[in-house]
Specification:
The protein is α/β, with parallel strands linked by helices and 370 residues long. It contains ten helices and six strands.
Length: 370
């Protein structure tokens, strides 16, 4: 991904272009809509104006996200972009609701629209501009990994489809004499409301914390497991503090014959390689001691057979046995459709029957990455 300064420059520049284009489109459409008494065109203009306002909020979020880490926010201010996206979603939803109300009023008290060929020309030009703008903004959003820009670009392409609907309505009125403007206004309002709800849902999911990106998590696991001494990679947690600010932690299985110095050397190599190739900072690498003696391997195999016989058991790792203290411990990844306490109780009873003299400690894990 591009460096942060370059990324923010592209986001701001792209957003400014979006503001200028959307304000111009809103002005043209509003003028045409008012002259022709078309509520559909006026609402299409309002939609463009909310897009411009969204771009302004996106710029504000990108600028604030540039602030350096401080005492109160040691990991930076990157997550402000999610909050700005939530504000944008609120603006879009509000615009959709008010548009729906105005459209319903026009259905109850209709006003005859007066379309001309010039009106159709303006709408057609607006569709072409929106398609070009949408493709451009979406491309820049993908290049910079900016969810706000990708959403804006997708929204612009949707606006082109909405404007096409307005054009069809105008053609029907012009050549068939049917007045469908208010009803098209309801349809447009529905699209705007739907977009607002989806944006709110997506942003809340980002704030709450999504499952780690599959491609990224797989890449990290591949890099970690590529070290010859690593016998297994588990418990990858990825923490997103805004675009370009990703931290992670992971557990690895290492031979129980390895010294602390050797373990320290390998974790250093892993941390550096992951950062160089993905930009992700590994804040911690936990170590599981992998037993190499035959007796321990047999016990592990016995227990693994019991655990993995259950459909809700997705993985078992972190196995450790202490024959002197008579202790057994391991982690089990449990699917979300099974209660963790119930799973631990079932496994403890089954394994206890096989190894009654041992104190069994099972750590339930959740499936957080693919």
């Amino acid at each position: 991904m591009k460096d942060k300064n370059s990324r923010n420059t592209i986001i701001v520049r792209t957003s400014v272009i979006g503001i200028i284009v959307n304000v111009m489109l809103a002005g043209f459409k509003a003028a045409v809509g008012l002259v022709s008494h078309s509520i559909a065109i006026v609402l299409d203009a309002v939609n463009n104006l909310t897009d411009a306002l969204s771009s302004i909020v996106t710029i504000g979020g990108a600028k604030y996200a540039e602030k350096k880490p401080d005492k109160d926010h040691p990991l930076g201010h990157g997550r402000i972009e999610y909050l700005s996206a939530l504000v944008v979603a609120g603006i879009v939803l509000y615009a959709g609701i008010t548009s729906l109300i105005e459209s319903m009023k026009k259905i109850i008290n209709p006003v005859e629209a007066q379309y001309t060929k010039e009106t159709l020309l303006v709408i057609t030009a607006a569709i072409a501009v929106k398609i070009i703008l949408g493709r451009y903004v979406k491309k820049k959003g993908q290049e910079t990994e900016s969810g706000a820009l990708v959403a804006s670009g997708t929204d612009a392409l949707s606006d082109a489809a909405i404007s096409a609907g307005v054009l069809v309505t105008a053609l029907i009125h012009l050549y068939k004499g049917l007045s469908l403007e208010a009803y098209m206004g309801v349809v447009i309002s529905g699209f705007i409301i739907k977009a607002g709800i989806e944006m709110i849902s997506d942003t809340i999911a980002d704030i709450l914390g999504r499952r780690a990106n599959t491609e990224l998590s797989q890449k990290i696991k591949e890099l970690v497991s590529s070290e010859p001494e690593v016998l297994g990679v588990y418990d990858l947690f990825v923490h997103d503090y805004g675009p370009g600010r990703i931290y992670a932690s992971v557990h690895v299985d290492l031979p129980d014959t390895m010294t602390v110095e050797e373990a320290d050397d390998i974790t250093w190599r892993i941390t550096n390689r992951v950062y160089r190739e993905t930009g992700v900072i590994l804040t911690g690498i936990g170590i599981y001691s992998h037993h190499s003696d035959k007796a321990s391997k047999k016990v592990r195999k016995d227990i693994e057979d019991i655990v993995m016989a259950h459909e809700w058991a997705m993985d078992m790792h972190g196995f450790h046995i202490d024959d002197e203290k008579k202790e057994l411990r391991f982690d089990v990844v449990i699917s979300f459709d099974m209660g963790q306490n119930d799973a631990v109780k079932i496994l403890s009873e089954e394994i206890g029957e096989l190894y009654p003299d041992y104190d069994i400690n099972i750590v339930p894990d959740i499936d957080v990455s693919d």
